[in-house]
Design brief:
mainly beta, Methylamine Dehydrogenase, Chain H, four-stranded antiparallel beta sheet, 33 strands, Photosynthesis system II assembly factor Ycf48/Hcf136-like domain-containing protein
């Protein structure tokens, strides 16, 4: 087990980083859902799902037999022992367990050519489940909706918050790198794209909004991940070019929502995290952690300055409910933890 202690300043406590598990070295993990300080689930390639109930000391490895040879790009907790996982690509599946992974049911299947599910988001307040997929019909995101009341029934959405679904560039799509290019609460739905173009789409009951984001000319670049904290009204978008993990250009946007205009306002940063980033998690009004192929970076001043926690590569990061730690998952079976 590897440990790294960092002191960010004379006024801050040291962060502790450790690798929790590398048993599944042939698996790429991108799906992650944190249920509590001790319970979380991970999902990845080779039909692999893992669950821990002791904070990552041990894992129960699961290969759901209801589907075969899937890469589970994202997983979500609906309630105690109840998880949804999405598997790519054609045919695409959504599978459900209500007993902590002992048994699974296939609740959605799509064999259409071009189907590719990227992310799943659950809002416990509204009980709404949204799954985002790459466009099958040019210029329109593929969106599925359901509820935790009955997650066996799915609808192909034509709108979100009563706003029609569309894409500005017919060749833009979504990166399934961390399952975090989708966010929803009771007031809005946010979707962020990449590829040929990178745009932030905001759907509200009062109308739809579009924000164009700068990116490099490469179709491998754009925004990969997003987090928004409604309590503190702060959000972050992270990305870059995944084929150039050491380049930091256009890898971070910070934003808030103006209460008067009900529109997104972007906030400048003094510095940026190092390299390509695919995941982000917000810990407080000023504390934020990002991860990617280039490593894990942490800011305690609202994203203005950044410190490198580790150069280890990770795809996805999620904070525990108490915000005292962050779980990370990545390629080669790596699962890590940062204690704050």
């Amino acid at each position: 087990m590897k440990y790294l202690f960092l002191l960010l300043s004379s006024f801050s406590l040291a962060q502790t980083y450790k690798v929790l598990n590398e048993e599944k070295s042939d698996v790429s993990f991108r799906g992650l859902a944190v249920e509590s300080a001790t319970n979380f689930v991970v999902s990845g390639s080779k039909n692999t799902i893992g669950r821990t109930t002791d904070g990552g000391k041990t894992f129960k490895w699961i290969n759901p037999t209801v589907v075969e040879n899937r890469d589970f790009r994202d997983i979500e907790v609906l309630g105690k022992d109840t998880y949804l996982a999405i598997g790519i690509d054609a045919p695409a599946y959504i599978i459900l367990t209500k007993d902590g992974g002992k048994t699974w049911n296939k609740v959605y299947e799509n064999t259409q050519k071009g189907i590719f599910l990227d992310a799943i988001h659950y809002n416990p307040k509204t009980k709404q489940i949204i799954v985002l997929g790459d466009p099958i019909e040019a210029g329109k995101p593929f969106v599925l909706t359901s509820t935790s009341t009955d997650p066996t029934k799915w609808t192909i959405a034509k709108s979100l918050m009563n706003q029609g679904l569309r894409l500005k560039n017919p060749k833009e799509a979504f990166f399934a790198s961390s399952g975090s290019n989708l966010y929803a609460d009771d007031k809005q739905v946010l979707i962020v794209s990449g590829g040929a173009a990178s745009n932030l789409y905001r759907y509200t009951p009062k109308g739809g909004q579009l924000y164009t984001l700068e990116k490099t000319a490469s179709t491998n670049s754009g925004i990969n991940g997003m987090a928004y904290d409604a309590t503190n009204n702060v959000g972050y978008l992270v990305g870059g070019d995944y084929t150039k993990p050491n380049e930091s250009k256009y890898n971070l946007y910070k934003f808030k929502i103006n209460a008067t205009t009900n529109k997104i306002e972007f906030i400048d940063s003094w510095k940026y995290p190092e390299g390509y980033k695919s995941g982000v998690t917000i810990l407080s009004k000023d504390k934020v952690l990002v991860c990617g192929y280039s490593g894990v970076d942490y800011s305690s001043d609202g994203g203005h300055n950044w410190k490198i926690i580790t150069k280890d590569s990770y795809n996805t990061c999620n904070a525990s409910p108490d915000k005292k730690s962050v779980i990370l998952v990545g390629n080669k079976g790596k699962i890590g933890k940062v204690t704050l």
